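Hi V.,

You were right to ask for the full record rather than a summary. Here it is.
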Amino acid sequence: MKHADTKYQNMPKEYKCEHCSSKVEAPMHCGHPMHLENVEGKQKWVCWMGTGCGVKDYTACCENPALIAA
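Predicted structure:
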């Protein structure tokens, strides 16, 4: 398990895709929004406490998502 990294505690709750304009809500875990991270070759939502705490599947909004904080 990765150690908790406090830089991930204040991540955005909502993102917007620069390519398709879709809004994407970050799931919550341990009281904070999850962040996207590469886990075993796939983009996944990860808890700020690390992959050993919480990982959720990420479904891309389009073929080439470019998420920015909304």
